[in-house]
Inverse folding.
């Protein structure tokens, strides 16, 4: 289980509708779970390739078209945190900010991985809130790569890859599942 919140930290300033300028840093995400041509996780855990490497800060745009998620590149991948241990407390795992607005997001979790998604399927048909449209609500839609997600989870497709090294997601009758993830917003000053 996870959330599926979309973020665009540009706040629609200067009509900037994509998240390509957003800078992401996930220092402990040195591993990932590859997907096949149908976006189905392979169940293996491998060293993160250069195009998906956010262990040092870089913009989403820098290597987005070098990936293999779609014919046009993009991100829809599970980044695995190398510092994860079962039962560990929540720790900061990802920082993302917009150089345009200075708005920053700090993501913390006690989970094994985060799914990073770059809005590859956004196609201009999902309406934005009226408050985001500067009076042009009838033509205000989320464009391609207009938002990104950071979905904290124990792994992806674990039930089909029980020997993969991912933590178990099995929940037996009478057991309780809890997860701790938080998103804190602030400002990055130049």
């Amino acid at each position: 289980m996870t959330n599926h919140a979309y973020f665009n930290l540009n706040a629609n300033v200067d009509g900037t509708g994509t998240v390509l300028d957003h800078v992401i840093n996930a220092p402990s995400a040195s591993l990932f779970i590859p997907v096949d041509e149908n976006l189905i996780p392979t169940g293996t855990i491998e060293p993160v390739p250069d195009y998906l490497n956010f262990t040092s800060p870089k913009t989403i745009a820098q290597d987005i078209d070098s990936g293999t998620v779609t014919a046009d590149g993009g991100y829809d991948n599970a980044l695995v945190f190398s510092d994860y241990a079962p039962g560990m407390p929540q720790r900061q795992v990802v920082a993302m900010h917009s150089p345009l607005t200075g708005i920053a997001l700090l993501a913390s979790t006690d989970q094994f991985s985060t799914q990073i998604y770059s809005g590859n399927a956004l196609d201009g048909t999902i309406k934005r809130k009226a408050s985001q449209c500067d009076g042009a609500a009838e033509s205000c839609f989320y464009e391609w790569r207009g938002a990104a997600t950071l979905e904290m989870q124990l792994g992806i497709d674990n039930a089909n890859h029980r020997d993969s090294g991912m933590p178990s997601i099995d929940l037996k009758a009478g057991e309780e599942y809890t997860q701790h993830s938080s998103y804190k917003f602030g400002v990055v000053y130049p």
About this structure: The domain at 22-120+146-161+179-187 is CATH 2.70.98.10 (Beta-galactosidase; Chain A, domain 5).
